Prior knowledge:
alpha+beta
Amino acid sequence: MARTLTRTASKSPSATARLLCLVNRHQPVGRRADWDGASYISRCEHCQAPIFRLKKGKWRRDRRRRGGQDRL
């Protein structure tokens, strides 16, 4: 008997995504980032934290920017 699994759209991040955010491994929203003159900045797709690009493919939480103080 063949069994098919369907994936439902969910707004909550997966357990893996939450774990990655906890260990400071973030992903930009929609793979989109803005240049602020010093680095690429965005928001994390999973936890909405402000993040900056450390190097290509490596994003970290940007602790210089707080909730409503940045332009993202």
